[in-house]
């Protein structure tokens, strides 16, 4: 398999952690690329020029991080990252993480192309409110009280942890940990795991 990615995409990092967690590192070739440069190989894999993109062993190209996550869940070995016994709970939290990731990523891209005006726009203000609501909701989630030592890492853990790391990486002024002690403690526990640490943003 081939995985198109870069070191600063939260979506690509989420999939890369899944590859490692499922014991598929030896089966996946990492293709580092710039999705903004119209890389021909990436465009062939994903005409939308988005990463991550995964080329399966049968040549099928898969795009979008959550779809790739579901595909990888059926491969490899180890504990399930999308356990059937906790399906609704895991997908609920993964959705919050994905929403936070989307709002943060779109804020970064808007600033890159529109400058400071992006934050003052209607969409910029909507993204800002969404980030605050999502962080506040995560602080209240009962899953944060489950000791990590008693349960395997899940897609929810990966999605939320990567989204929080991306905020700290690209939007440090958000100061997401301020006044959110439960979320901060949970994040510290998750990010101490090996595969989360080794894929840190650069």
UniProtKB/TrEMBL annotation:
GO MF term (any one): transferase activity
Any one Gene Ontology cellular component term annotated for this protein: cytoplasm
InterPro entries: Glutathione-S-Trfase_C_sf, Glutathione_S-Trfase_N, GST_Omega/HSP26, Thioredoxin-like_sf
Pfam families with a match to the protein in the record: GST_C_2, GST_N_2
Keywords: Transferase
Gene3D superfamilies linked: 1.20.1050.10, Glutaredoxin
Domain GST N-terminal residues, every copy: 1-80
Protein's UniProt name: Glutathione S-transferase
Record lineage: Bacteria, Pseudomonadati, Pseudomonadota, Gammaproteobacteria, Oceanospirillales
């Amino acid at each position: 398999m081939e995985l198109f990615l870069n070191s600063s995409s939260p979506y690509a990092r989420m999939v890369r952690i899944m590859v490692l967690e499922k014991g598929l590192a030896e089966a996946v070739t990492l293709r580092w690329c710039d999705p903004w440069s119209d890389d021909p190989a990436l465009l062939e894999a994903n005409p939308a020029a988005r990463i991550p993109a995964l080329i399966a062993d049968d040549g099928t190209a898969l795009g979008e991080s959550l779809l790739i996550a579901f595909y990888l869940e059926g491969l490899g070995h180890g504990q399930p990252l999308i356990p059937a016994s906790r399906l609704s709970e895991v997908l609920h939290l993964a959705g919050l993480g994905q929403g936070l990731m989307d709002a943060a990523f779109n804020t970064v891209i808007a600033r890159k192309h529109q400058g400071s005006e992006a934050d003052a726009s209607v969409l910029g203000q909507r993204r800002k409110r969404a980030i605050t609501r999502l962080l506040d909701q995560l602080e209240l989630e009962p899953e944060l009280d489950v000791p990590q030592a008693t349960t395997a890492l899940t897609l929810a853990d990966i999605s939320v942890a990567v989204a929080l790391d991306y905020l700290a990486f690209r939007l440090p002024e958000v100061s997401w940990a301020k006044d959110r002690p439960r979320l901060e403690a949970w994040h510290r526990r998750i990010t101490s795991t090996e595969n989360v640490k080794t894929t840190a943003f650069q």
